[in-house]
């Protein structure tokens, strides 16, 4: 046990160590040039954690490992639960059926495509394929973090998935404003999108919440409707983490039972933290907590997520990446092409029909 009498001191020291790294990552993320790039503290935290893992790892007490593990497991799940304070069901209702359908279609198709490409076409392990797919299909690094405990995946697999989110999410952040100003805004017929449609397209296809916010801000004279639609559709995708993880848990349980035979005793994998996440979002929808307190909760939650990401980075050794080659890049590229092109088509069809 992490807090047994003989481990308590080492665990607390490890948690404090991770917290110091997370504080540094938060400070760096707020610096002007870094902030403009849209890099969240979560991403900087995992980079710092990986640097530590491959340089100073053997220089510090091994007793601290229990605290690092606690940060990457227990603190992570708690942070995912209170992530629900960022969402209300009213926000989801605001984008209507179009935003919901685009979110649902893009999430499910991207996850299935990414898992299939990674595992069947490019030969990656199923865990790595699913983690990479969850990052692209739902909400970037936070989705990878949420999926990791359901799969019980190793830290280096999480790091691979997050790195793909960073790479292609950053490309999206610069590509989408150019697409809009040079093609979409000036086109006629099927290629043209209204500001609201483009917002739905952005929210339904770009990886990170911060990247979604950055795109409308980069479009000259963008109507407020564009930014509002983008953020709300994105948050609709975020809340879909919970049902996706529950379905994934049922699938893993079914697969394990099928592989083990009829008599296999297989424990049903239900990610209860995902259920609690929905409960927190539902509670937040009643607006019982003052907004300033909710804002403070979200600041604390971002820090806890940064701690979890940093801890996962601290468990990542470069030696574990051997043999993967460019498979994660090819998998993420395939999903990126689908999100940009397929997402555009899906958005136009859904908005045109409804």
* Beta content: under 5%
What's the domain count?
A: 1
Biggest sheet record: none
Helix count equals 16
Distance N terminus to C terminus? Answer: 54 Å
Relevant terms:
globular; 354 residues; 0% strand; 16 helices; mainly alpha; single chain
Description:
With 354 residues, this protein is mainly alpha-helical. The chain has one domain (8-317, 328-353). It is built from 16 helices and no strands. Helix 6 (96-121) runs antiparallel to helix 16 (327-353), helix 10 (195-205) packs parallel to helix 12 (224-239) and helix 13 (241-260) runs antiparallel to helix 14 (272-284). The protein is globular and about 70 Å long. The chain starts with 7 loop residues before the first helix and ends with a helix.
